[in-house]
Amino acid sequence: MKTSKIVEQIPPSGIRAFFDLVLGMKDIISLGVGEPDFVTPWNVREAAIYSLEGGYTSYTSNKGLLELRQDISRHLKHKHSLEYDPSDEILITVGVSEAFDLALRAIINKGDHILIPEPYYVSYGPLVTLAGGKPIFIKVNPENSFKITPKDILKHCGDRTKGIVLNYPNNPTGASYTKPELKAISKAVIKRSLIMISDEIYGDLTYDFNHTPFPTLPHMKERTICLNGFSKSYAMTGWRIGYACGPKNIISLMTKIHQYTMLCAPIMSQMAAREALKSGERSTQEMKREYRRRREFIIAGLNEIGLTCHKPEGAFYAFPSIKISGLSSMEFAKELLKKERVALVPGTAFGPSGEGYARISYAASLSNIKEALLRIKRFLAPFERTKPLDKSSGLRPEQGRRTKK
Ligand SMILES: Cc1ncc(COP(=O)(O)O)c(C=O)c1O
Q1: Which domain, by its residues, includes 205?
Q2: Which ligand 1 atom is at minimum distance from the Cα of 97?
Q3: Does 237 contact ligand 1 (Cβ within 6 A)?
Q4: What is the pLDDT of residues 290-312, one digit of tens each?
Q5: What is the 3-state secondary structure (H, E, C) of the chain?
Q6: Ligand 1 atom at minimum distance from 100 CA
Q7: Number of domains the chain contains
Q8: CATH number for 16
Q9: Does ligand 1 come within 6 angstroms of the Cβ of 171?
Q10: What does the pLDDT look like over 202-237, one tens digit per residue?
Q11: How much distance in Å is there from the Cα of 40 to the middle of ligand 1?
């Protein structure tokens, strides 16, 4: 049977591929999945229960409940002085995942280029390809704190460049951008007339400075599709609820696709999202405090055992170098799983520049993080640390050979 070539050719998610190995294994400490270890706050769950009791089981408007769009509009105004018209500048989606797909499909003509900093969240590259575009990757590395610069953008722009994706705080690196850094980026965006798709799903989990939404920057509201949701900051991954804010014409195109594919986000999740916003940020702040505590602990611990790690500014991921082991990222993850029963994600799941790194989620209990660090330390012990490093690769000479196999 002839099936879609384009779908056949895109790779399955590297995270899933790795976690298929984990399935069925016992006594694993999992620092792999990117989701809060908290359950959704009780008042939010209760709102969904009441909505079901009250018989709210129907479709909603394609754009989502007007009341929820109004709540989001008020929330953005109150928190960031951002003004979006709930009637036509906000769309409720099935998670940021759907919003991202809609945004791409609304702007891409066949062959358009979309810039993506790499390593990148696993969906970005494949979804650009599926939308008929071409992902152009901009490599980031620890030397530039895993961040892109305006220069990088200009260097990677060509005649077909339509837009750029920025995810901050970032999955997998945890890097985020200060307001001056974003302002500098916005200048390159203007210079090349790009559309910005700004994935700010971890915005509320920024630890060292205030998160600046991209559309708050001068002249950026009219060229940004800003995506956010409830999965991470309200521990609501299973509810599948997110939203997009942007210029009227783009939101209208996104709504057109959404009305044929999803119709609407689930009504009970929309009701729950209203309660999440209504209850303010108390639970988000509590979770954030806990993530921050874990961040301090895990970063210090990783550096101490020799897995050098920059300090992530947000989200709940550490992205340490595992080069000291001389193993490839995949070998490291597989061996660690087999020998010490700790699951993390090989850096290569997020693109080729993830080679030599691993993503470790600290959305896990402090006791599990402590135990995982002990196990990783034990795992690393047999790797000798006395021979000088090969400066170019960061690997010891014989280890370099090993990774080339
Ligand atoms: C950067 C980023 N964007 C989007 C998503 C998907 O979010 P949602 O659950 O809202 O679909 C994730 C989930 O891990 C993510 O890390």
Answers
A1: 42-278
A2: 11
A3: yes
A4: 999 999 999 999 999 999 999 99
A5: CCCCHHHHHCCCCHHHHHHHHHCCCCCCEECCCCCCCCCCCHHHHHHHHHHHHCCCCCCCCCCCCHHHHHHHHHHHHHHHCCCCCCCCCEEEECHHHHHHHHHHHHHCCCCCEEEEEECCCCCHHHHHHHCCCEEEEEECCHHHCCCCCHHHHHHHCCCCEEEEEEECCCCCCCCCCCHHHHHHHHHHHHHCCCEEEEECCCCCCECCCCCCCHHHCCCCHHHEEEEEECCCCCCCHHHCCEEEECCHHHHHHHHHHHHHHCCCCCHHHHHHHHHHHHCCCHHHHHHHHHHHHHHHHHHHHHHHCCCCCCCCCECCEECCECHHHCCCHHHHHHHHHHHHCEECEEHHHHCHHHCCEEEEECCCCHHHHHHHHHHHHHHHCCCCCCCCCCCCCCCCHHHHHHHHC
A6: 4
A7: 2
A8: 3.90.1150.10
A9: yes
A10: 999 999 999 999 999 999 999 999 999 999 999 999
A11: 16
